[in-house]
Design brief:
about 210 residues, alpha/beta, Rossmann fold, 5-stranded parallel β-sheet, 9 helices, 5 strands, about 10% strand, binds adenosine-5'-diphosphate
């Protein structure tokens, strides 16, 4: 099993690359998706978040008010740390469970926005970073996610820098061009690097 960590700054195109890897046959484990699942109504995760931050972070229907929680932790690094202490172990455990459930010959792609910020690079055989210039990323967030320019810039600047990402990247996919160009790079990566490295790993196991 080859374990890939896929990351990139918001708006860079990480999700687009993950979709293409799934299409090629990778088992993709989406950390953002799991992070939402572990705080669904009725979970111990949501109970712990409410115990830490109060019922003000719930909507009337009892589900998590992500926007309210997001505002709270964005403004307060200590709150962000406490939230991470609750959610990171839950996400880690569920990701590990899904990885263990994948076939031994699988290429597993962990789609994780904060590999660099949270120092997780050591968990993977290979770290793949999707990159695009800051102004390109901001433009996409404004166009596709309904953010203002200021909101988009604030989100981008709250994350790691490209320099920090380059320091942990084994592979850098440049997504400043067209989506088709990204897809081509993903195909090349799959055929020329991921499949052969996975085969080497499987051969040394036997
Ligand atoms: P991330 O997961 O890194 O935040 P996404 O893959 O969701 O980024 O891409 C951000 C937005 O930009 C999406 O709406 C996506 O469709 C679009 N997008 C991705 N790659 C390109 C590209 N090369 N050119 C134009 N738009 C793109």
């Amino acid at each position: 099993m080859l374990k890939i960590g896929l990351t990139g700054g918001i708006g860079a195109g990480k999700s687009t690359a993950a979709r293409e890897l799934a299409r090629l046959g990778a088992v993709v484990i989406d950390a953002d998706r799991i992070a939402r699942d572990v705080v669904e109504p009725g979970t111990p995760g949501l109970a712990a978040v409410v115990a830490a931050f109060g019922p003000g972070i719930l909507r009337a229907d009892g589900s998590l008010d992500r926007a309210a929680l997001g505002r709270l932790v964005f403004a307060d690094p200590d709150a962000r740390r406490r939230l991470g202490e609750i959610t990171h172990p839950l996400v880690g455990r569920e990701s590990a469970r899904r990885e263990a459930a994948a076939p031994q010959e699988a290429i597993v792609v962990h789609d994780v926005p904060l590999i660099v910020e949270n120092g997780l690079a050591g968990r993977y055989n290979l770290v793949v970073v999707v990159g695009a210039d800051e102004d390109v990323r901001v433009g996409r967030l404004v166009r596709d996610r309904g953010m203002t320019r200021e909101e988009a810039l604030a989100r981008v600047r709250a994350q790691a820098t490209d320099e920090q990402r380059r320091a942990v990247a084994d592979v850098w996919l440049d997504n400043s061009g067209t989506p088709e160009e990204l897809v081509q790079q993903v195909h090349r990566l799959w055929e020329e690097r991921l499949v052969p490295e996975n085969e080497r790993l499987l051969a040394t196991r036997n």
